[in-house]
């Protein structure tokens, strides 16, 4: 089957030989966007988190066939080097990553959270950001999430 | 002569008619017992499915979905949230899609969600579970017809017979009755008046 999906603003037509193939395989191996990571492959760690029509999903357990006509955003489309997304900027400011492997998934999950809950409490973060980081950068990530929330407030957004 | 023979014959006919029109108490008791035993059997077969982990795991009393045959707490502290579908940005649909995923072992079916808290069943007796299920104030306003439809047609209920593989690639256990057997006992029990056996 052939699907059409928009990834980071570009429309792609992709032929799926396996109707159950996860979207992560398409993104990494067919579209060559390597920012989204394969972690556990069981929707448990969150390294593969992307946005599908604005919702955070774990692409290792999302069949690519369901992405037909959907709008996908990966870490490459969240911001640019010249103009990082506030979440990416906060990650830089707080020097969050250690090895960095899981961080794209965390940033995508955080961006989705801030779209739903602009000023999250620690409890909101605990409930919604349940990705796994083996370097245990959770403390810095929490600070970065709060910083990103401030960067995304209308006052700061207007200044930038 | 005819008078002598006629009287016993008359009495015999009358007795036969009375017996036909009014069965003995003994006959009624036996018939009721058979009906009750049939109802008990149908009810218990129905509840064998309802109390199986494929159903119970998403009918918790503590807001936390359960996983596996041993009903362990859902990983990652996932909970009911405000709409039975998880939290604002991490919800059931973050991982669970419209169908099972054989790559990740994550189960899926349309409108994947927890049953409402009023339909929490864990640690209840079979009678208590069915009383909740039959109460329109607790079951979302469903009458018997709507309950039968839910139990025999809802794709999330029927997922129990197509639960896919777990994260180790092993098939999940299915309920003890086949899908068709379950549908037939549901129909039979409701057609019999949806009577919960007294000994439950």
Show the helix and strand layout:
The complex is a heterodimer of chains A (about 160) and B (about 200).
Chain A: E1 2-7, E2 10-15, H1 23-30, E3 49-52, E4 55-58, E5 71-73, H2 75-78, H3 86-93, H4 103-116, H5 122-128, H6 138-151, H7 154-159
Parallel strand pairs in A: 1-5
Antiparallel strand pairs in A: 1-2, 3-4, 3-5
Helix pairs in contact in A: 3-6
Chain B: H1 2-21, H2 25-50, H3 53-56, E1 66-67, E2 72-73, H4 92-95, H5 126-134, H6 144-153, H7 155-158, H8 179-191
Task: Give the tags.
heterodimer; A: 160 residues; B: mainly alpha; 8 helices; 2% strand
Quick description:
The complex is a heterodimer of chains A (160) and B (200). By secondary structure, chain A is of the alpha+beta class. Chain A contains 7 helices and 5 strands; from the N terminus they run E-E-H-E-E-E-H-H-H-H-H-H.
Quote the average pLDDT of chain B.
Answer: 90
Show the largest interface. Answer: A-B, 28 and 25 residues
Number of domains of chain B: 1
Low-pLDDT stretches of chain B: none
- What fraction of the residues of chain A are assigned to beta strands by DSSP? 5-15%
Structural summary, described in words:
The complex is a heterodimer of chains A (160) and B (200). Chain A is an alpha+beta fold. In chain A, 38% of the residues lie in helices and 14% in strands. Chain A has helices at residues 23-30, 75-78, 86-93, 103-116, 122-128, 138-151, 154-159; strands at 2-7, 10-15, 49-52, 55-58, 71-73. Chain A has a five-stranded mixed beta sheet, sandwiched between helices. The longest helix of chain A has 14 residues, at 103-116. Chain A is globular. The mean pLDDT of chain A is 96. Chain B has 200 residues and is an all-alpha fold. Chain B has one domain. In chain B, 45% of the residues lie in helices and 2% in strands. Chain B has eight helices and two strands. Chain B has helices spanning 2-21, 25-50, 53-56, 92-95, 126-134, 144-153, 155-158, 179-191, and strands at residues 66-67, 72-73. In chain B, strands 1-2 form a two-stranded antiparallel sheet. The chains are: A alpha+beta (160), B mainly alpha (200). The interface between A and B is medium-sized, with 28 and 25 residues.
């Amino acid at each position: 089957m052939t699907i059409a999906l928009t990834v980071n603003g570009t429309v792609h037509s992709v032929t799926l030989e396996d109707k159950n193939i996860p979207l992560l395989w398409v993104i990494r191996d067919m579209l060559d966007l390597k920012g989204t990571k394969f972690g556990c492959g069981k929707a448990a760690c969150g390294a593969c988190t992307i946005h599908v029509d604005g919702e955070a999903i774990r692409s290792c357990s999302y069949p690519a066939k369901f992405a037909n006509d959907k709008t996908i955003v990966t870490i490459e489309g969240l911001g640019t080097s010249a103009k990082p997304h506030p979440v990416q900027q906060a990650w830089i400011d707080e020097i969050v990553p250690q090895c960095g492997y899981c961080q794209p998934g965390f940033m995508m999950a955080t961006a989705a959270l801030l779209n739903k809950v602009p000023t999250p409490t620690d409890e909101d973060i605990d409930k919604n950001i349940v990705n796994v980081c083996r370097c245990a950068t959770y403390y810095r990530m929490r600070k970065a999430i709060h910083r990103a929330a401030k960067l995304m407030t209308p006052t700061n957004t207007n200044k930038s | 002569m005819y008078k002598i023979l006629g009287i016993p014959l008359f009495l015999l006919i009358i007795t036969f008619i009375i017996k036909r029109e009014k069965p003995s108490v003994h006959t009624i008791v036996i018939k009721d017992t058979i009906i009750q035993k049939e109802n008990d059997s149908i009810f218990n077969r129905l509840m064998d499915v309802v109390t199986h982990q494929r159903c119970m795991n998403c009918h918790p009393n503590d807001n936390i979905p359960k996983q596996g045959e041993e009903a362990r707490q859902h990983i990652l502290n996932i909970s009911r949230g405000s709409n039975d579908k998880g939290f604002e940005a991490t919800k059931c649909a973050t991982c669970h899609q419209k169908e099972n995923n054989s790559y990740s072992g994550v189960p899926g079916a349309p409108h994947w969600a927890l049953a409402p808290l009023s339909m929490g069943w864990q640690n209840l007796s079979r009678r208590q579970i069915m009383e909740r299920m039959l109460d329109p104030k607790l079951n979302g306003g469903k009458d018997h017809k709507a309950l039968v439809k839910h139990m025999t047609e809802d794709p999330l209920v029927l997922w129990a017979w197509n639960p896919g593989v777990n994260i180790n690639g092993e098939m999940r256990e299915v309920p003890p009755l086949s899908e068709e057997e379950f549908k037939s006992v549901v129909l039979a029990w409701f057609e019999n008046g949806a009577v919960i056996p007294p000994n439950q």
